[in-house]
Amino acid sequence: MKFYLLLFNCILFFFSSAQAEKNKLIEGNIFFKNGDFTNAEKKYNESLKIKKNYTKASFNLGNTYYRQQKFKESENQFNNLINSTNNKDTLSGIYHNLGNSFLRQKNYKEAVAAYKNAMKLKSTDEETRYNLAYAIKKLNEEQKNNQSKKDEQQKNNNEQHNQNQMTKQQAQQMLKALIQNEKKLQEAKKEKGKEAQNSEVEKDW
After folding, report:
1. d(CA 28, CA 60)
2. 94, 111, 176, 201: which could form a disulfide with 102 (CB 3.0–4.6 Å)?
3. Range with the lowest mean pLDDT among 34-38, 121-125, 127-131, 152-156?
4. Is the separation of the CB atoms in 57 and 24 below 8 Å?
């Protein structure tokens, strides 16, 4: 009889433990819907302490990070979830939210890749399609701006090089002019010396 009671208590503990992470998840969802993301994050983390690989809690935790504008944290959360499930709908949602996290960090190339992965899994998702088009647009703008900056930098470098070349030419011209002036001064001195010699008169006592 005692053995039976002990076994029965173990079964109750198992089911109560199995429900515990779900209860924390539900509590977190209530906080999330009410916009209390701080407490939602707390409850999702409590759920994950009970069940480490609880995909639903991990997914919602990533959303909570995103809503708090902790975009790097949400990126890491969704990245870690990619290998946690084989369900196409869930995996598509993971890639979609990962793309959103990249997009908010202006990592447009990574966002495009994430949205494309989401579309491969769920090609009918219009929201992902729209986000993908937007990310591609921003990526093209970024690449054009970067190219313009490179062109401008190259132009400035060329102008600086030309200025340096002009400076060398000017220096050579100035040096040449100084040498010529020096020659003229030396010639003028010689002429003055000759004049002085010719103007000397011996005194007649």
Report:
1. 9
2. 111
3. 152-156
4. yes
HSE-up of 33 (CA within 13 Å, CB side)?
Answer: 6
CA–CA separation, 90 and 43 (whole Å): 21
Query: Using DSSP, how many helices (H) and how many strands (E) does the chain show?
Result: 7, 0
Do residues 40 and 74 touch, judged by C-beta distance below 8 A?
no
| Exposed e or buried b per residue across 25-36, where buried means at least 16 C-beta atoms within 10 angstroms of its C-beta | bebbbebbeeee
CA–CA separation, 8 and 4 (whole Å)? 6
* Distance (Å, whole) CA 120 – CA 29: 29
Both tokens assigned to 194? 């000759």
To the nearest 10 degrees (0 to 180), the angle between helices 37-50 and 2-33 is 150
pLDDT tens string 154-191: 777 776 766 666 677 777 787 788 788 777 777 766 66
Distance CA 29, CA 62 (A): 13
Six token digits for residue 164: 């340096």
| Mean pLDDT score across all residues of the chain | 83
Share of the chain above pLDDT 70, in %: 78
Distance CA 67, CA 82 (A): 20
Candidates 19, 43, 16; CA nearest to 29 is: 43
